[in-house]
Every structure is written in structure tokens, then in C-alpha cells.
Amino acid sequence: MGVQRTHLRLAVTALLVAILVLLVGCGTVDDPQNTFAPEGDVARKQRDLLLVWVLGPAAVILVLVFGVLGYSLIRFRRKSDNELPKQVHGNNRLEIAWTIAPAILLLIIAVPTIDAVIDLGRGPATDALHVRVTGRQWQWEFEYLDPEYEAAEANLECVAPQLRAPEDGAGQPLCVVGELHIPVDREVGIELESIDVIHSFWVPKLAGKLDNIPGTTNRMFFNATKIGSYSGQCAEFCGLGHADMKMIIVAESEEDFQEWVTDQLEGGGAARSRTGEPDLVSRGE
Amino acid sequence: MSHAPAALETTATGIDNRKLLMWLFLASETLLFGSLIAAYLLYRGQSVVGPYPEELFDIPFTSVSAFVLLMSSVTMVLALAAIQRGDQRGLRIWLFTTALLGMLFISGQAFEFTEFNREGLSLSSNLFGTTFFVLTGFHGAHVTVGVLVLLSLLVMALRGRLTRSQSMNVELVGLYWHFVDVVWIAIFTLVYLIQP
Amino acid sequence: MTLAESRGIKRPPEHEADARQAGGRAHPGPLEYTRIGLILAVITAVEVGAFYMDIAQWALVSILVVLSAVKFSLVVMWFMHLRFDSRLFSGLLVGGLMLAAALFVVVLSTLGGGLT
Amino acid sequence: MVEAMRKLRADAESYQGWWSWLTTVDHKRIGVMYGVTAFSFFLLGGVEALLIRLQLSTSNGQVLDPDAYNRLFTMHGTTMIFLVVMPLSAAFFNLLIPLLIGARDVAFPRLNAFSFWVFLAGGLFMNASFFTGGIFQGKLGAPDAGWFGYAPLSLVSTGQGIDFWAFGLLILGIASMAAGFNFIVTIFNMRAPGMTLLRMPVFVWMTLVTSFLIIFAMPIITVALFELLFDRLYGANFFNMAAGGKPLLWQHMFWLFGHPEVYILILPAMGIVSEVLPTFSRKPLFGYQFVIFSGLAIAFMSWGVWAHHMYTTGLGTIANSAFAVSTMLIAVPTGIKIFSWIATLWGGSINLKTPLYFSVGFISMFVIGGLTGVMHTVVPSDYQQQDTYFVVAHFHQVLFGGAMFGLFAGIYYWFPKFTGRLLHEGWGKLHFWLMFIGFNLTFQPMMILGLLGMPRRIYSYGSGTGWDFLNMLATAGAFLIGLSILVFMINVVVSLRRKERAGADPWDGRTLEWSLPSPVPPYNFAEIPTVRARDDFWHQKYAEDEEGRPVPIVAGGAYQAEEEEGEEEAETGHGIHMPSPSFWPLIAAIGLPIMAAGFIYQESANLLPMIAIGAVITIVGIYGWALEPASE
Ligand code: HEA
Ligand code: HEA
Ligand code: CUA
Ligand SMILES: [Cu+2]
Prior knowledge:
By secondary structure, chain C is mostly helical. Chain C is built from 4 helices and no strands. Chain D is globular. Chain D has 2 domains: about 1-580, Cytochrome c oxidase-like, subunit I domain (Cytochrome C Oxidase, Chain A, Up-down Bundle), CATH 1.20.210.10; about 585-630, no CATH class. In chain D, helix 3 packs antiparallel against helix 4 (about 65-100), helix 8 runs parallel beside helix 10 (about 290-300) and helix 20 runs antiparallel to helix 21.
């Protein structure tokens, strides 16, 4: 029957279109949050894990399943109305084979997965820059926790430090809103907190997300291996302003970073706080 | 509780439809009370302000309550034994006693709640208040429903509408009643007797 | 599966209107119920007694947990007739209990709190 | 006997009009009502989706404001899951289970009617929330915290949207649980003689498994919803971190329910496909036992994977690893099903009719969805994918590509059994292709969008993000799906008007329902059949030769003779007892939303009496029900 042929051709075309779209999609120029174009070690590790260990096997399985499915649909089409095929009820060996094979494959995938979980679960390096990231409806607040970044004056745009009881004798950590500066190639240890609902800290090109949960502190780390500015945004739905809860991470050379810090400490932090929508175009390029 | 004659149609497993229904319901109730108890245990000793359980619990009083509920299980099963023997008088007496003990238990709980409330514990005062009232409140609601059903049975029995062939009605209510009782056995131990 | 076994082409014979169930034995009588009731009362007394005794917390907890488990089993086995009725019912109750216990042990241990 | 049947048929025919639908306890009518209601909600949820897609079709969309957008996606998700896929599955349970096991009705016909009315009440109540915000001022009042309502966002949400959502879900939960109990008892107890557990059609098995999942999962969400409501309405502290409460408790409880729930959504569709494929390849299901046991395994394992929705909450290394492994392993039993289905097609005589198209659509799309699920389980890469459009793509791939395709296969397959008319093949294939292409056009781009870093639940995105083109594609695809749904509706109307009757057995079916006339008479079986084999009806039609090839049995063959003996045996049983209609279930259901509304508004409008009124109505309904002299 010719009609069926046409249908099949249609299906194949649809599939090809889908693949084409995929290729076009991955190759777009504007990709400020592309997880497949990482610029940090953590994000790179996360992408490679997916690419090497899962996407490959998944593609093979997909092609196999679709292949056999398509083949049987063409090969075993009913040719006449009183055609009666042999009644096969099953085959235990086959069933056991396709139970065990995927199980083995999955256990193999589990090994690098767990390895990476453990790796990413470690504490930050000893020379890391320590930053506390507080989410609040709807802005990001970054506090530099290392002692050398103590500010004389508090940045009044930062709400979280004001809610926290000030420690005896200690000054205020430098706090900025919406835009975090970090030195390139140096690890940043992050503490995640929230003062209202759950938010999620996410800078796709540098690292996957982790949630800011009220009442708890979550820890992660990342670095940037290239100078530039990277856009991130809140990844846990947090109400009206969720879509606009964005941030910029600026990775710069150690000198530029120090200069920026000095600026901030003198200007009380407020000087360069985020105003309006962050600029999504890379600076370093 | 419909008036379906007990063995109008035999079932594929030989198990009575309604009895299976009741057991399925009770099985799912284990997860309901499991969730409530888990919330209580999670927040045990986590309240940031008082009043705390140590200050409020009156163990002798609650022990009597627990005892009352436990004994109502005995009277309940005696009611079942009575109807299965065709002993209408026994049935009425034991149903009545069971309902009475159930009401006694609820009154005890009402007294306890008001007492705690007077001492400053409420649903919103702290984590203890929240989890305690919700857990025991849910249990109390179950007992209340049970008492209502028992009283309905009693009315049926008094009007002579609960005959030996309908013993399944009593058996089903019994299953529910005993289940509510064993939940209290768990709560009594986990909430009242074991304190951090 | 016991169910499949109990299930032939023929329906089981019609049972009498009394409480005999397929695969189950007859329920015990009032005397036995009263005896169980007495045991339950005694155990409750022991529990409350243990509460007021001056013993280590771990010992108290284990005693209380064991005793209440005994009470629990006595009620469900005799009063709820699990000893005598279809095994399906026991399976349902035990299945539900184990599921609840397993799930919430994991939840409590990841969330922390009073249990740990 | 014959006399009695004639009378029954006459009774049924005189029993018409809207009143008869309000009081019916016939599982087939209840099934139809479930189906029609759920499909209406599907249109509603679909329109919500189209609005979402319109807003997202370009960057900086201006169709919706953020507030409306948040309410719409919350209602879209909630509607599709609880008011569409679950009740559509319930429609099939109702229509088919008694027929497939050789029974005249479910174990508790009035409880069954109650389930439906409570479902309808819950669905309407949930959607009534739209009107609470002052809709005439252009403000929607629906819930706005997402379909999983994470605390503490759902606590601080103002207005009554969340209260309606929580009470709505509680009411719907009652409906699902009642149906769950009912179908378990039905399947255990109402089987015809000889219908052993291992002779039951796979759809019956999947219904059984799904029902067990429902009765164990629902109580957990029930408690969670009560806790949320106590917090919101009475200032309790379950999720209040100021008092030491832990917001994560909500997530655990929601997903403890939520993950079994996703298998509640997919297993019925898998059951349907397991019936369709054998019929349309004229071969028994390959590896029947394996398909069943894999269903049991999926149900069992589904309890041990919930935290894969919480990888990014900081559960810790051990928990994340353990849940990764348990989640991965759930692919194994699912794979068994996929492979067994393909093996069923292999070597068959495949009749390329619309139900088969949808089944093949199910298999292919579900495999893609399942594989994306496996990608999610790889925890570190899920840190990148969680809460992006990759997740949105994953779950539409399994929910729409899986569950909805499977359910449509079932609609095309069983439509003739209940209406007496076949759905038109030409319209049907047009429907399929539009839906299949539209589906891929909508959701494959979302996969890439997710990898390109587009978070979900954002009402708008900037123009420099590189997401414009793919979003436009997705929107176009969504409208294509919409068009396909219109084609389906046209098909139903056109087909119902066809003169041509379908006949009892239009597909050369294998299971008992095809032995009955179409549409099925109210009492289903004139004689309760005696079952001698799996796929009993097939074996009444075909014997097997030595090579395992089926040989048609001419009427009056050996088997037929045996059958007559069986009938005599059955003759000695009782006559046909049909449950009498009742309006008490409807009454009992009506009280529930009234009570819920009373609780929500008791403070602002002093509606305490409303709680009492609702309670009284429900109690009266229950007493009326219990005391009514009905034969069930
Ligand atoms: C019908 C519903 C349904 C089904 C069946 C599934 C099936 C699966 N799901 Fe999905 N899931 C959802 C509905 C569903 N899911 C929903 C609604 C959400 C999001 C909720 C929200 O956040 O709003 C979600 C989210 C979700 C997440 C969380 C993502 C995140 O938020 O970060 C994860 C993570 O592990 C996951 C995994 C899986 C897996 C492993 C399966 C497996 O069961 C799939 C198994 C199937 C296959 C793998 C294909 C067939 C198998 C073979 C061909 C064998 C060979 C294969 C291998 C060896 C790999 N799902
Ligand atoms: C079974 C479940 C199911 C189904 C079938 C669908 C169907 C669709 N979904 Fe849905 N979706 C969910 C379950 C489902 N969804 C869930 C659980 C969420 C998460 C919500 C959350 O985050 O909280 C979600 C979220 C979700 C989002 C993400 C929103 C966000 O995160 O910001 C999007 C975005 O595109 C989307 C799109 C669609 C589309 C285009 C369809 C289409 O396939 C719909 C096709 C249907 C139609 C087009 C209807 C046809 C109507 C007509 C033809 C009109 C005729 C009308 C009359 C006669 C009155 N869905
Ligand atoms: Cu903060 Cu979303
Ligand atoms: Cu899941």
C-alpha cells in the first residue's frame, strides 16, 4: 500500500527535521547560558559526564529501538485479511537477556556518576575565595567572607547582612547586589542561603545549580577558566519576579579584581550594584 | 453498610467484598498516620519556644485514657462475638459500652486539649503544638467518626434491624475501631512515654 | 501466590452466614477475647510503670517499643482476626506498615531532626 | 431467564434522560462521564498551554503579565495531571475492567458513582479558583506556586488560590482513593470462573497495580496538603522556618507521593498498549509474565526514587548517589516492557489501523522521554538540567508522548465497543500525524532550550538569549497539536453519525469484551462466562496447529460444545441482579466542596455555617446511601 509508504517517509522526514533543529539550536551564536559551552571546570565536568557517558549510549539505544520498531512495522505489515502468523508467546532467554544487559549498562553509568557526585561534594580549595550568596525575592546578594574584604560601611542595598546579628567587633563583609566579581582561575567557595522562599543559584557556563533554602546553608564551588562575564539566573520558581532574578558573574584578572575590590570598599559597595537588566554580552571578547 | 444479604454472591477469592475494602482502607491509613507520626518525630525537641512537652504531659491521666480506648477494643470484639452467637442483648450492651468508652476517650482528649491550651500551647505556638495537635487531632477525628458509626449500629440493633446474618456490619466497624486503637498504642508510646 | 491457588474454575461453595472465611478458621470466643484484654491491660500497666522507673533512656525506649509492639500485635492478631483470616489481609497491613516505616526512616535521616 | 433479560433491556431503554445520568451506577455510563469530563478539562488545560506558548513565542512577550502567567502554568500542570490523565485512565478502568474479567459491574457500583461525582466536584472547585481574584478586573485568582506548590512559596502566596488548590487536591484524592479501593476489590473478587490472576489481560493487571499505588501514595499527599492548609489557615508551623520548621519536609512528602504518581499516570497507558499491540499483530503479547512482573517491579521501585526531584536541594553525597542508582535501575523493568512490545510486533500480521499508530507513537515517544529521564538521573548533569526546559521536555515526552498517546490508542480501539460505531480511519490518521508532528515540533526544541540554559516557569526572556527561534517552533507545534485535537473532535462527531455499525468484534479481538454486542448491554454478560485460557475469546475463535499457527474454528467445533456445558452450569446460578440507581452518591459528593469553601472563607466572611451545611449534606448523603435498600 502506497499510503503507508508515504506515512513512513513523513515520519522519517519529521525525525530528520528534529535532528536538524537540534544541530541549528546548538550552533547559535547568542548562547549566554549554553550548558554545552562551559567556561569553568565544574560546568565542563558536568557536560562531559553527560556527553560521554549518557548521550552516547542513549543515542545507540534510541537508534536500535527505532530501527527494530521501524523494521518490524514495514516487514510484518498485514498483507491479506486472513493471514494468521505463528503464535509466539515469549522467550525466557531473550527476556532475561534484555533485563540484564540494560542493568549492566546502567551500573556502568552509575560509576562515573557517583564519582562525580563525590568530587563535586568536596569542600572548596584552601586558597578559595569565600562568598555567601543570599537569595531574596527578587535579588541576589553576594558577601565576600574572607577577612581582607571587610568594609567599613554597610551596603544598604544588601538586606541579608542587616537581618543577621552583627558579630562582636567584626566589620561588615563587603556586600554587592546582582553582580559578583571573581578572579579568573581561582576557585570560589559558595555558601547559599535564603531569607524568604527557595531560590536556586545557577550560572550555566560556570556550574550547575544548587538551591538557596531558608533555614539551611548549602555549599558549592566553581571557577571560571576564562575572563568574561557570565549570566546566571534564579532557577527555582520564587514568585512574581522569578524570571527577572538574574545575575552577572564577572571573571577578571587578579589585578582587575583587586582594583574592583578597592573601588567597592571605598564606595561602600553601592557604586556598581546592578541597575536594571544585566548586560548579557560578554565583556572579555 | 448496606443491607445486602451476606452471601448473596460468592466472590472469586471467597473473601467478602466489604471486608477486603475495609482492609485496603486500613492499609492506606497506615501511610496517613505514618506521615503524621513522622512529622511529629521530625520536629520532636526542635521547638524554639515553649511550652515543651515535659511541662505539659500528664502521664497518669493519659494512661487512663489509653487504657479506656484499649478496653473499648475488648468490648467491641465482645459485641462481634455476641452477634455471631445471635445474642442480641449482648450485642446491644457491648456496642453501647464501646461507644461509651469511645466518648470517654474523646472527652479526655478534649479536656487535655483545653488544659494544654490554657497553659499556652496552640496550633501556632511552636512546633510541638503544631505537630501534637495535628497528630492527636487526626486520631481524635477518627475516634469520633467511629463513635458515630457505633451509635448508628446501636440504633439499628435496638430496632432489631441488626440480625445475625448481618454480623459483617459489626465486624467491619470492629476492624476500623481496633485499627484506631492500635494507632493510639503507637502514639501513646512514641509521643507520651518516649521523651527526648 | 495463595490467591491463584485458591482460585479454580469452580466457585468455592457458598459459605454460611457466620464469620467463617475462605482459608480462615473460626474466630475465638468471648473467653479468649477477655483473656487477651487482660494481658493488654497488664502490659499497659507495665509500660507506665517502666516510665516511672529510674532506668537508662535506651533501656526504657527498648522496653516501651517492644511492649507496644506486643500490644499492637495482640490486637491485630486476635481482635482483628489476622491470625484466622485470609493471609491477604495480613499482607496488606504489614505491607502498609513496612512501606510507611521504610519511607519515613529515610526521610527523617536525610532531614535530620529529633530522631537523630 | 430470557424473559428476565428482555425485561432488563426494556428497563434500561426506558431509563433515559439527564436524571438517569445523575443517578446511574452503571460502570459503562460512569466511564463515559469520566471520559467526557476529563476531555473537557483537557481542552481547558490545552487552552492554558496555548496561552503559555503564545506568551513565550518571542522574547519579551506581551500576551500575559507575570502574575497571570504563573497562575496559568500552575493550573495547566495541575489540570493535566489530576483532571486529565488520571480521570482518563479512570474512564478506561470503568469502561473495561468488568468486561475484561467477566463481571456485570464493579464490586461497589454506588461507590463508583461517588468517585465520579467527587472527581467532578473537585475539578470544578479547583477551577473555581480562577474567579476568586476579581476576574472582571482582569485579575486571575488561581493558585500560583507551581503544580508541586513548594513551601514556603505556597505559604506566602496571597489570596485564596493555594487554598482552593489544596482543598481541590484533597477532594480529588478522595475520588481517586475510592476508585482505587473499588477496583482492587473488583479485580480480586469479581472475576468470572476460571479467570485466574495469570489469565487476566495486562490492562487489568496494570489497573490493579495502579490502584495499589494510588491507595498508598494518596494518603501522603493528603497529610502534606493538610499541613499546608493548617499553616496557611491556622498559623501552624510545619513549614515555617521562623519557628524551626523545615521547608524541605514539603518536598519530601510531595515527591514521596509525586513519583509513584507519575507511574500512576503511565501504567494504565502501558496496559492499553499491551492490549492493542497483540490484537493488531494477531499475536499474543510477547512475554506476558515478564510484562506483568515488570509492572509490579516498576510499582515497587517507584517508592525508592523520589529524591531524584531534589538533587539540587543539597541532600548530600550519599543520598544523591543512592537515589541516582535506584532511579537508573527503574529503566530496567521499563525496558522489558518496551522490548516485549516490539517483540510482539515482530513476526506478526500488523494491521496498520489508527489504534496501532497511536501505540507505536507511544512506544517511540516514550523511549525518548525515558532516555531523557535517565539523563536526569546522572546527578551532576542534572545540576544543569533541573528546573530547565529540559525537564519540561522530559515530562511532556512521557506524559503526552506516553500517557496521552496511549490513551488515544485506547479511545480509537474501544470506541466501537461502547458506541457501536468505528471512528473514521481517515480522520484518525490525520489526527495522528498532525499530533505526532506537532508534538515533536513542540517538545524536541524544548530539550535544546533546556540545554541552552532556559529555566522553566519564566514568563519572559530577553532577546539576547538565543532562545527565540526554538520557542517560536514550539509555539507553532502547540497549535498544530491543537489542530489535531479539533480533527479528533470532528472525527468523533462524524463517526457517531455514521450509519454503518461496527459489529461485536471489528478488530478480531482477543479478550472477553469483544464477545459482547456493541454497544454493550447494561448487564454486560447474559451468562457469566467460564474462562479457560488467557485471551479466552481468541481461543474461542482459533485453535492452534502443531506449528503454533492459528486455525479458525468453525461454529459448532469442539470448544463450542464445551462452552454450552459451561452455560448449563452457570444456569443453575442466580438470575441477573443489577444494582439499582441511586442519587445518594451525588448528594454525598456535593457536600465536600461546600465544606471546603466554608473553611477557606470562614475568617473573612464568617462562613462557619457553610462548613456545617456541607457536612450535613455529606452525612445525609452517606446515611441515605447506607440505609437505602439496594442490591449491591
Ligand atoms: C508519566 C510520567 C513519567 C514517567 C514514566 C517518568 C519516567 C522517568 N523519569 Fe521522570 N518526570 C516526570 C514524569 C515521568 N517520568 C515528571 C512529571 C517530572 C517533573 C516534575 C516537575 O518537576 O514538574 C519528572 C522529572 C524527572 C526527574 C527530575 C528532574 C529534575 O527536576 O531535575 C528525573 C530525575 O531523575 C526523572 C527520571 C525519570 C526516569 C529515570 C524515568 C524512567 O522511568 C524512564 C524509564 C524508561 C526508559 C529508560 C526508556 C525505555 C527503556 C529502554 C529502551 C531500555 C534500555 C535503556 C537503558 C539501558 C537506559 N524524571
Ligand atoms: C499530561 C500532562 C500534560 C499535557 C498533556 C501537557 C500538554 C501541553 N503542555 Fe504542559 N505541563 C504539564 C503537563 C502537561 N502538559 C505539567 C505538569 C507542567 C508543569 C507545570 C508547572 O511547572 O507547575 C507543564 C508545563 C508546561 C510548560 C512550561 C511552563 C513553564 O515552565 O513556564 C509549557 C510550555 O510550553 C507547556 C506546554 C504544553 C503544551 C503546548 C501542551 C500541548 O500538548 C497541549 C495540547 C492541547 C491543546 C492545544 C488543546 C486543544 C484545544 C483546542 C483545539 C481548542 C478548542 C477549544 C474549545 C473547543 C473550547 N506545559
Ligand atoms: Cu528566585 Cu526564582
Ligand atoms: Cu520522579
